[in-house]
Specification:
single chain; 302 residues
Length: 302
């Protein structure tokens, strides 16, 4: 789980949180599959096959699925020279392999990164982001996304968030099997009723774990990007500009982007209130700007 060797500032707190999250997610995964096997005794080969097959497919194809879902289109240096130039400079500065570069046709100003490791990673910026940011602000955002690749937290988030999808699918399989046999065996009734409850608890716990990790990893990426570029003020300006521009985007477009908040540089819709912040994928704008302000003071730059 440790970050690959790059010049991005390492973060032991992030590494320990990723390890703890994956351990707890794995434990929940075992509990879920074990419980479903008890209920669906006759269909255990199908449960195991689905659990294993879906997990492998999600791990190996998660980057392509995410990129396709968010409308990413890979571009060449000739098609997007400024974007490629910024990524080239940052990768040379960070001493890391250059990822694939993509653009998403969307007026929502944002960016994201996907990939299991540095060799198959992809960094994408929306057309709305490219239109609105100055070159130094764009480099700050791209450095933030590249740090996610370097720290490997993108892969951890993808695997961790997958448990909710798996829980729902396997539960439907177990319920179908249990209900089919429940008519012949009245003793299965309580077990069949227990499956949705267990599934809901597993989903809720995995949801909270991924949210806690997501907020911390965003602060880590901001910090790593600020130290790498040496210009925390540029990243702060980008954050302020993007957050302000979000209010001008039609709510319908923001709703369409909201399911991918955990992967975006900035949330399409920001949660408000105590409970909303607890369930948010990102720290508040104030928290991010406050951290960048402290880094500016530490670097001795305005």
């Amino acid at each position: 789980m440790a970050a690959a060797r790059t010049r991005f500032a390492p973060d032991r707190g992030l590494t320990s949180r990723m390890v703890a999250t994956m351990f707890l997610i794995g434990l929940l995964y075992v509990v879920l599959v074990g419980g479903l096997l008890v209920v669906a005794k006759g269909a255990w080969p199908l449960v195991v096959l689905l659990a294993g097959g879906m997990f492998v497919a999600q791990f190996w194809f998660s980057d392509r699925i995410a990129a396709y879902s968010m409308g990413a289109r890979e571009v060449t240096p000739e098609q997007a020279p400024e974007l490629h130039g910024a990524v080239d400079r940052l990768c040379a500065l960070a001493d890391m392999p250059k990822p694939r570069v993509a653009v998403a046709e969307s007026d929502v100003p944002n960016a994201f990164a996907t990939g299991r490791n540095q060799r198959n990673s992809l960094v994408c910026a929306t057309t709305g982001l490219l239109r609105r940011l100055e070159p130094d602000e764009l480099e700050g955002v791209l450095a933030h996304e590249l740090s996610h690749v370097a720290h490997r937290d993108v892969a951890v988030m993808t695997v961790a968030s997958f448990l909710g999808v798996l829980a729902g699918t396997l539960t439907r399989v177990a319920l179908w099997s249990g209900l089919a046999r429940g008519g012949r065996n009245s003793n299965l009734g309580p077990l069949v009723l227990l499956v949705p409850l267990v599934s809901a608890v597993v989903y809720a716990l995995s949801f909270l774990l991924t949210r806690l990790l997501s907020r911390y990893r965003e602060l880590t990426a901001d910090r790593a990007a600020a130290f790498l570029t040496g210009r925390p003020s540029a990243l702060a300006a980008a954050l302020t500009k993007i957050s302000g521009q979000m209010a001008r985007i039609p709510t319908r477009d923001l709703r369409q982007a909201e399911p991918f908040n955990a992967f975006y540089f900035a949330p399409a819709l920001s949660a408000r209130g105590g409970m909303g912040r607890l369930l948010s994928t990102h720290p508040t704008l104030e928290q991010r700007l406050d951290q960048l302000s402290r880094i500016s003071a530490q670097l001795g730059r305005p």
